[in-house]
Amino acid sequence: MDKQHRKAIIAGNWKMNKTPKEAAALIDQLIPAVKDAGCEVVICVPFVDLAVALEKTKGTNIRVGAENVHFEAAGAFTGEVSAPMLAEMGVEYVVVGHSERRQYFAETDETVNKRARAAVAAGLKPIICVGESLAQREQGVTEELVRLQVKIALGGMTADDLKNVVIAYEPIWAIGTGRTATAEQAQEVCAAIRKVVGELYGADAALALTVQYGGSMNAGNAAELVAKPDVDGGLIGGASLKADQFAVIVDAAGKG
Ligand code: PGA
Fold it and tell me: Which of 96, 105, 113, 128 is deepest in the core (most CB within 10 A)?
């Protein structure tokens, strides 16, 4: 089974939710709920929640991630946070290129690449998001588009860098809409991502790459999605804000 060569990761993407106090309360519920996880468990939280998340999860199996990172190490970039800042705090993962960043904050494939490289250079693990809009899916360009997004996002990275990279396939039409991709659709695109990584970095790198699905994954549909051979866990938005639901998804991924 190819899946034994890589780690399934369930990562919560809290987006712009939870004050530090609310974060502390949710993490208190999460710790016992996911303590026996058979997969890697990550919570990607707002910058202001990172300190409390790191403190609370110390000594547990929950890893902490940020939701964005700038590509310069320091400088005149008001409002931005750099990779060395996150790394020094003890942050391990960072979401890069989420479609909400691309859509609302003018993120491009090029800046996604720069941010992902900065993350890797600082010892962080970027979760790079790719995915098509509904119009693009209907036009039949999903695979081509996602291949291109992956190629550009990984530009300039070595096979060694890739060991710390996660790719999340997130069809835009499925994010926050309650409309999940079918397990077959998720499998098809996750396999295409693994294929393009194989072309760029060789079969071993492709085999070892964690490719997540994201977009309305929840307690009810997670098991079917993560059972697919090329789906190595998920990036979870809405359902990551409810400890009981998140725990069901983590459980499914541990068995997937
Ligand atoms: P959703 O978000 O699970 O709420 O659809 C997923 C994501 O944006 O990563």
Answer: 96
Pocket test for ligand 1, best of 167, 175, 212 (most atoms within 8 A of CB): 175
CATH of 5-242, picked from 3.40.50.920, 3.20.20.70, 3.30.2060.10, 2.10.70.10, is 3.20.20.70
Determine if ligand 1 sits within 6 Å of the CB of residue 172.
no
Q: Identify the pLDDT of residue 1.
A: 57
- Percentage of the chain surpassing pLDDT 70? 100
Choose one of 173, 236, 245 to mutate for the ligand 1 pocket test, by most ligand atoms within 8 angstroms of C-beta.
Answer: 236
In 10 A of CB 153, how many CB atoms?
Answer: 24
Ligand 1: nearest atom to the Cα of 239: 3
- How far, in Å, from the CA of 76 to the mean position of ligand 1? 31
What count of other Cβ atoms lies within 10 Å of the Cβ of residue 236? 30
Instruction: Please check whether residue 232 is in contact with residue 7, taking contact to mean a CB–CB distance below 8 angstroms.
Output: yes
Q: Classify each residue of 71-107 as buried b or exposed e, where b means 16 or more C-beta atoms within 10 Å of its C-beta.
A: beeeeeeeeebbbbbbbebebbbbbbbbbbbbeeeeb
Q: Please give the mean pLDDT across all residues of the chain.
A: 97
Closest C-alpha to 21, from 47, 50, 52, 45:
52
Taking the domains of the chain in order of start, what are their residue ranges?
5-242
Instruction: Read off the amino acid at residue 180.
Output: T
pLDDT for the residue numbered 208: 96
Mean pLDDT computed over 80-109: 97
pLDDT tens sequence across 48-79: 999 999 999 999 999 999 999 999 999 999 99
Residues recognised as catalytic? 98, 170
